[in-house]
Specification:
Helix content: 40-55%
Radius of gyration: 25 Å
Largest sheet: 3 strands, antiparallel
Distance between the termini: 52 Å
Structural class: mainly alpha
Number of helices: 17
Number of strands: 9
Strand content: 5-15%
Number of domains: 3
Order of helices and strands: HHHHHHHHHHEEHHEHEHHEEHEEEH
Length: 429
């Protein structure tokens, strides 16, 4: 079998890109730059970074062809990369012969490194079956188009759905991850007991949820007793010890939140499928059905525009039902990528100003953005839950759509097509 033809060099050589950026650096006085000049500089800087990362990927591919030193070893020792980053470079290089169109786009600087890493990671999850890998590689052209147009978060979602359709919905990979779980403990020279726990995402989320829940309970008890509770590593350790002290021989329900749409439960995965944990991890249908055998189930009905229920002004803080509804609509902070479970629930109209604890007045915010809002930034939700953000001086900054709106529209259209198909009269020859 002949070796694959070498990839063509990008139209804009790396050396030319470097010279242009060097000239920009020579004539730039950073203290005197205006906003437009900063934007141009950042764009040029990112172009150079992408090109250099593409060069690293090409070098890793060549090391694989030589068959001697591994790219991971070279980049972790000579390049001083972390083990994880060196492994990612090696995986990028491994895509050259399998996904040539995607690799050319990366070499040309049109595809972000994060998107290429998403592809490499996804393909690694399909290693259990050559047929899965072949089906994935056949999507080279469409993958390249999506990778060049989508931001990393949207592209990661698209790739995840593609992998689920090609494979067995992630069951094999989840089992493979679970088989790598490990726990090790030892006593150090000072007599302190220490441990290392390495878990798959699902088990890790259960473990973290249990620690977080117990830590909140201990903090509440301390507050009621007139003491001050400081959230952090010490409280987490106390919570872990408390869970061990109170453990019985009875196995309880999994401490994990799962979000899934009804059509997926009834008919299996489709284009608008949502099946994830509260922490954002994808979950296979068999695992989901196993959880549902022994779980508290709360249903939340979403309108086609993604909006959910509301519950009056009786409570100052959001109820569990409201938090669950917000978790369905927002996987993250309403203004950034911080995970929902690390956010605080914010009243758009403050409680002190007679703001109701209704869903149409609540959004999740990370601590940074929550603090920013309480220092002059202004928020407003319209009827479609689009979030309008303004600076302290009243200037409009950005409008953020409801994250769940797109998937809800997809489900609404899916149901309409399904009903229209069911109404069509059947014919027989």
């Amino acid at each position: 079998m002949n070796p694959p033809a070498p990839l063509a060099a990008p139209a804009d050589p790396v050396s030319e890109c470097l010279r242009d950026h060097a000239a920009l650096l020579d004539r730039s006085q950073f203290q005197a730059l205006g906003e437009d000049e900063i934007i141009d500089f950042v764009r040029s800087n990112e172009r150079v970074i992408r090109r250099l990362e593409a060069v690293g990927s090409a070098v890793a591919s060549r090391l694989t062809e030589l068959g001697g030193l591994s790219a991971e070893d070279v980049f972790s020792t000579v390049g001083k990369h972390s083990t994880g980053e060196a492994r990612r470079v090696q995986r990028r290089g491994g895509l050259a012969n399998r996904l040539p169109t995607l690799t050319r786009g990366f070499l040309a600087g049109t595809i972000p490194t994060a998107n290429l890493d998403t592809v490499a990671s996804a393909r690694h999850k399909l290693r259990h079956d050559p047929a899965w890998e072949a089906a994935f590689d056949a999507k080279d052209a469409s993958m390249t188009r999506k990778a060049s147009r989508m931001n990393p978060k949207r592209f990661a979602g698209w790739i995840r759905d593609l992998v689920d359709r090609i494979s067995d919905d992630g069951q094999t990979e989840q089992q493979s991850d679970a088989d790598k779980n490990s726990f090790r403990s030892w006593t150090n020279s000072e007599g302190r007991w220490q441990a290392r726990l390495d878990l798959d995402p699902m088990a890790g989320e259960k473990f973290q949820n249990a620690i977080d829940g117990e830590a909140r309970s201990l903090a509440k008890q301390a507050t009621l007793a007139g003491e001050t509770a400081h959230h952090g590593e010490n409280l987490n350790a106390t919570a872990a010890c408390s869970l061990v002290d109170s453990a019985s021989g009875t196995k309880g329900r999994p401490s994990i939140n799962v979000v899934v749409d009804l059509d997926t439960l009834r008919h299996g995965p489709w284009d608008g499928t949502i099946k994830r944990t509260g922490g954002g991890n994808n979950i296979s249908l068999p695992s989901l059905h196993q959880f549902l055998c022994d779980a508290w189930i709360t249903h939340t009905v979403l309108h086609e525009d993604g909006r959910a229920l509301a519950v009056g002004r009786k409570y100052r803080t959001a109820t569990d039902a409201q938090r669950d509804a917000l978790r369905i609509m927002y996987q993250t902070c309403a203004m950034c990528e911080v995970q929902f479970d690390h956010c605080e629930i914010h009243h758009i109209i403050e409680w002190e100003h007679h703001g109701p604890t209704d869903l149409n007045n609540l959004i999740p915010l990370c601590s940074v953005h929550h603090q920013r809002i309480h220092h002059g930034w202004q928020l407003k939700l319209d009827d479609q839950r689009n979030l309008h953000c303004s600076r302290p001086d009243g200037r409009h900054w950005k409008t953020l759509p409801l994250p769940s709106a797109a998937s809800c529209r997809a489900r609404h259209e899916y149901r309409q097509r399904k009903r229209a198909h069911e109404r069509q009269p059947s014919t027989t020859d």
